[in-house]
Amino acid sequence: MKRINKTELGDILLPNSKVRAFQHERDLVKRLWDHGFAVVRAPASGSKAKRIAYPDVVAIYKGRVIACEVKTVRKSRSIYLDGSQVDKLLEFSRRAGGDAFIAIKVVGSGTWLFIPIDKLEKIDSKRYKIPKELLNSGLHLEALVSVVKGVKRLTEFKE
Amino acid sequence: MKRINKTELGDILLPNSKVRAFQHERDLVKRLWDHGFAVVRAPASGSKAKRIAYPDVVAIYKGRVIACEVKTVRKSRSIYLDGSQVDKLLEFSRRAGGDAFIAIKVVGSGTWLFIPIDKLEKIDSKRYKIPKELLNSGLHLEALVSVVKGVKRLTEFKE
Q1: Beta strand pairing call for A127-130 and A121-124
Q2: Distance (Å) from the C-alpha of residue A132 to the closest C-alpha of chain B?
Q3: Nearest Cα residue to B41 out of B53, B58, B16
Q4: Are B12 and A11 inside 8 Å of each other by CB?
Q5: Which whole number is the average pLDDT over A14-33?
């Protein structure tokens, strides 16, 4: 447990790296909320409930559910993900009857890009990859919102 | 900010009162998860996002959403709720297209009782009440699960 460089967040104490991750998640929550979604972000600690899959952010609009794992990049590049992280996201969205995405914030520009989970490349049993080209063709937030509010299923969306 | 009687919860530090509240929420999360729901509980701190309504626990089963505010009692008694808390829960469930409940744990017995939010008694502009008789007629967890998994809307359920 790291106790250096802690920052107060409400009445809890967290290492700065977690605070930064929270700030990005909170940015996503606010944007989706402003588009009319019901949104909830995962708690800081799921440590006692490891078998339960908490996505970073869950957004719901009239029964349509999207579950997101949040990543940040400073520039366009390939992204690698743990297989267990992807499996948890899939399990959550299967139960919820929703769609799962990796939500990537390009930190400099403030742009959010969404990659449907079924487009990830499986490298081996433990890792998935989002190649740079796939990231660049990601769905922008406004497009995601239109699709969810429309009649199409998200998985029918063609970039 | 209280810093006495803190307990470690994963890698964050919390006052014991919050830890106890979390343990009850986590119990509810686990039970709903074991019934096949996708479940998420709210983060410890929503302090920077006060205009965003986070229910304590959100559970989803194939697009059907239930949003819960969690309360605990040691014995059967009337319960009072802040109007703002009720308003936030209603706003979330309106956006999500779901149903809202006050989930009450009777601590001694471990029983959970669910009161649909439209059954609360409004006392004045700032407070709602769950009278003791209403609490006693609350929906048990198994009944709630059956209704959500069935074809009925939750609001059609008659005790």
Answers
A1: antiparallel
A2: 31
A3: B58
A4: no
A5: 84
Nearest CB among A45, A62, A95 relative to B9 is that of A45
Residues 6+ apart with CB under 8 A from A102: A68, A69, A71, A79, A81, A114, A115, A117, A120, A130
Across the interface, whether the CB atoms of A44 and B41 are under 8 A apart is answered no
The answer to whether B50 contacts chain A (CB < 8 Å) is no
Distance of CA B151 to the CA centre of its chain: 23
Give the integer Cα–Cα distance in Å for B16 and B7: 6
Positions of B annotated as catalytic residues are 45
pLDDT per residue as tens digits for the range A92-122: 999 999 999 999 999 888 899 999 999 999 9
CA distance between the termini of chain A: 42
The mean predicted confidence, pLDDT, of chain B is 85
Contacts of A19 in chain B (CB under 8 A): none
Best residue in A34, A48, A60, A91 to probe B by mutation, most B CBs within 10 Å?
Answer: A60
Q: Report pTM.
A: 0.85
ipTM: 0.84
Nearest CA among B72, B64, B74, B6 for reference residue B36: B64
* Residues in chain A closer than 8 A to B63 (CB atoms): 63-65, 96-98
Rounded-to-integer distance, Cα B113 and Cα B4, Å = 32
Q: Which of A145-149, A150-154, B152-156 has the highest mean pLDDT?
A: A145-149
φ/ψ bin of B35: left (φ > 0), alpha (ψ from -120 to 50), beta (otherwise): alpha
B97 touches chain A (CB under 8 A): yes
Q: What is residue B79's predicted lDDT score, i.e. its pLDDT? A: 96
Q: Decide if pLDDT at A9 tops 60.
A: no
Is the CB of A75 inside 8 Å of chain B's CB atoms?
Answer: no
